[in-house]
Amino acid sequence: MTDTLKLSIQFGGGAELLFDKIKKREVELPALKKYFPESLKEKWAIRELLVWIKDNLLKERPELFLQGDSVRPGILVLINDADWELFGELDYELQANDTIMFISTLHGG
Amino acid sequence: MPISCRTGCGRNAVLKRPKTGDALCKECFYWAFEAEIHYTITKGELFNRGDSVAIAASGGKDSTVLAHVLKTLNQRHDYGLNLMLLSIDEGITGYRDDSLETVKQNRDDYEMPLKILSYKDLYGWTMDEIVAQIGRKNNCTFCGVFRRQALDRGAALLNVKCIATGHNADDIAETVLMNVLRGDIARLKRCTAISTGSEGTIPRVKPLKYTYEKEIVMYAHYKKLVYFSTECVFAPNAYRGHARALLKDMEKIRPSCIMDIIYSGETMAVKEEVTLPTQGICVRCKFVSSQEVCKACVLLEGLNKGLPRLGVGKSSKAKKMLAEYNAKQEQEKGSLEQAIIDLDDSSNLIDDINQSNKVTKAKSCRSGSCKSNNKVSNGSTVNNDKCSSKECCTGKCKSNQGNDIDQGNSKINSLLEEYGINDAQKDIPNGNGHGSNVSKSNGEIVENSDEDGEVLFNDQDEENSCAGACGKMGSLQIGF
Asked: In the list B86, B145, B270, B445, which could disulfide-bond B154, CB 3.0-4.6 Å?
């Protein structure tokens, strides 16, 4: 089975403070069906990735990172270094070796 | 499928601009971002050729991007500006000490001179020490007020024409919203001004006034600018945090709302019958103030006299507090007069009188904590004798202690007038004169006010809420 999905997940602009101050992580997601048995979809999208991050990486104050089923407004998401707003945001289907970056705009000045 | 750049340059777009909705590539984004700031600068006539300009630098994203862009534009468009960095060290361990390292990095990267002024040098207190006195609830008031003035002082030292701050469009919109929510018409009117400063003061300019936060962060990211993004270790400003969260939620639905709120703020007309405070000069420190004595001097006086909440309490509570205090003083005055009469007869009696005073005081004290406050007050009194002449009077005043008391008195008087409390003026001068009794009373005031957690927001300056040089620090815990 080669259903796992390798991704690079990065945090910046202060978002890393919610993730043990680690800015870069290499992760391997299991097959979507394994992680969400009820899911009707086959492929991981950002929407599911956020849940996975919440379950696996986010240790404190989830409300500062997530709001509803999306990221908290003010946190920018970059897919392979480009604005996720150009790629359908939550519905973007993750590809192998994608780099997903979360940058907080809410920190400092 | 990659989206191509809206300009037709042939490259792939990397971001969607919140202001226009355009999808742009990196190069076209840089160009648009910088061109808009250049337009803001020229349209607003923010600078003149040959000006020295201090960039208020916190090490955060806004001031880092501001320094970078100003340097770039200064070269590209030959503004002829002499740019320098001005930083304020509030004395917050684990926060500002780290961010100042980033500022030093900016200094090296952008080859600009850097001046760092510390609260400790200017006021005799670090924020760490202030928080130890005031607690974590109202400390942002001190920090904001002191920073505002510290920037003025730094700019005077550097002999610059103006101070450029990193306030961005989101900040301005947030401030408009805050002032509406507080009904603060005076600040509502002036908070959207791109250049502020009355005659005789050093103007503040906001070149990033129309620049979205998202674009600032994306610019810094793509340009690989190093900035500091740790939250302030002290308490959040919850109210501003909520305004900020609301704004971000609305921006998500309709990004242009940021510009629209600024536009509303700019064009809103204020009824003529609304009286606005006029900005003048503090009689004490000679820096800009809308009161006779500026907020920084009032707060500092409170700290030095062991009444750290003098400038931050809610006026109604402060009034009640001071009325109680006043009554006590009257009573005490009687016994002190008695003591003076007795002093003529026999000095031995004084001990007895003091003793009896102490007993009375002890009864009225609500908890045992006044003893420690007493110590603090005494310590501060000593400090005050020293610093009133050195810091409060900007080093010019060589007055003896008696004069200090008078100054303190007049300052406190105007503070009290400011709060509409005219009847409590007599209390304060005793603070220096008669050690233990009055200090004890001070202690009680401190203790009472500890129960008062509310901040008088209306007394905060537009940039007080940790939205001065440090942008949104105050709202970080809420704002993330």
From this structure: B86
Segment holding A10, helix H or strand E: strand A5-12
Q: Is B32 on the interface with A (CB under 8 A)?
A: no
Query: Which of helix, strand or coil describes residue B447?
Result: helix
Give the Å distances, CA to CA, from B9 to A82, B13, B24, B28, B223.
Answer: 17, 10, 9, 8, 20
Chain A residue with CA closest to B225: the answer is A13
A13 interfaces chain B, CB cutoff of 8 Å: yes
Residue B181 is part of a domain; what is its CATH number? 3.40.50.620
Tell me, yes or no, whether B29 and B89 share the same domain.
yes
First to last CA, chain B: 33
ipTM of the complex: 0.94
SS (H, E, C) B293-362: CCHHHHHHHHHHCCCCCCCCCCHHHHHHHHHHHHHHHHHHHHHHHHHHHHHHHCCHHHHHHHHHHHHHHH
Q: What is the pLDDT of residues B92-144, one digit of tens each?
A: 888 887 889 889 999 999 999 999 999 898 888 888 888 888 777 777 777 88
- Residue B147's CB is within 10 A of a number of other CB atoms, namely 26
Residue-wise pLDDT for B429-462, tens only, equals 433 334 333 333 333 333 333 333 333 333 333 3
Query: What does the alpha-carbon distance between residue A30 and residue A2 come to, in Å, rounded to a whole number?
Result: 9
B60 in A contact zone (CB under 8 Å): yes
The pair of three-digit structure tokens given for residue B55, joined into one six-digit string: 């960039």
Is residue A109, in this structure, part of any structural domain at all? no
Q: Which domain holds residue B344?
A: 314-452
CA distance B256 to B21: 9
Do B236 and B132 share a structural domain?
Answer: yes
The pLDDT tens digits of the residues spanning A2-55 come to 579 999 999 999 898 889 889 999 999 999 999 999 888 889 999 999 999 999
Residue pointed to by tokens 């809410």: A106
Query: What is the spatial distance between Cα B302 and Cα B380, in angstroms, rounded to a whole number?
Result: 10
Q: CA nearest B78: which of B114, B124, B41, B123?
A: B41
Element (H, E) at B15: strand B15-16
Angle at the Cα of A48 from the Cα atoms of A42 and A49, rounded to 5 degrees: 115
Chain A residues with CB under 8 Å of B216 CB are 105
Q: Which residue range is the domain that position A56 belongs to? A: 5-104
Q: Is A99 on the interface with B (CB under 8 A)?
A: no
In angstroms, what CA-CA distances link B33 with A54, B40, B80, B150, B286? 34, 11, 21, 30, 38
